[in-house]
Amino acid sequence: MSNKKVKIIRALGKVLFLLYVGFLVYFLCLAEWYGRTGVVEEYRYNLELFKEIRRFITYREQLGMFAVAANLFGNILIFVPYGFFISIAAKSRGFFRALFAGMGLSLCVEVVQLITKVGSFDVDDILLNTTGSVLGYLLFVICNRIRRKNHVRNRKER
Q1: pLDDT score of 38 more than 60
Q2: Helix, coil or strand: residue 134
Q3: C-alpha distances in angstroms, 109 versus 21, 102, 121, 138?
Q4: Apex 39 CA angle, 33 and 44, nearest 5
Q5: Whole-model pTM?
Q6: Taking Cα atoms as reference points, which of 79, 71, 75 lies closest to residue 133?
Q7: Closest CA to 70 of 33, 99, 105
Q8: What is the mean pLDDT of the chain?
């Protein structure tokens, strides 16, 4: 691949990452349809692991499947791109890098939600977000292996 193509791909990657971060900030802190209609008076938090996950599963009939899927799978899926992008951008890649970077970003988001009283601090969200970040890293590993195989195959054909 030529240097010009590499630069274009890297620039596109940076733009996509910035768009993703903007979407993440909007969705996690500002999106009204996700229950963020304003600042509440009291702090809302959950420090018991699996409490909210169990609650969503137990009351899935009353809450509706959309609410359950949005909470459980949405918290995972929203961090998959972060795990992927952080693996591309970082000089040192690895499982633990994606794990701790995802956990750190998720913790920051939850603390901001707690301090600003927009949303709630939930350890289950940290777990689900971190899981998404790790899945993003695994997706990166798969894509990188496919890319390398194709690169080697293309070099042999020349």
Answers
A1: no
A2: helix
A3: 12, 11, 9, 23
A4: 90
A5: 0.85
A6: 79
A7: 33
A8: 87
* pLDDT tens digits, 39-86: 567 888 999 999 999 999 999 999 999 989 988 999 999 999 999 988
- The total of other beta-carbon atoms located within 10 Å of residue 25's CB is 13
Q: State phi, psi for 46 to the nearest 5 degrees.
A: -135, 120
- Alpha-carbon distance 67 to 150, whole Å? 41
Where residue 32 falls among pLDDT bands split at 50, 70, 90? low
Parallel, antiparallel or unpaired: strands 121-122 and 45-46:
parallel
Closest by CA to 84, choosing from 5, 22, 139, 4, is 139
CA-to-CA distance for 40 and 124, rounded, in angstroms?
A: 21
**Ramachandran region, residue 44 (left: φ > 0; alpha: ψ -120 to 50; beta: rest):** beta
Distance of alpha carbon 1 from its chain centroid, rounded? 30
**Average pLDDT score over residue span 5-33:** 80
Q: With beta carbons less than 8 A apart as the criterion, state whether 98 and 70 touch.
A: no
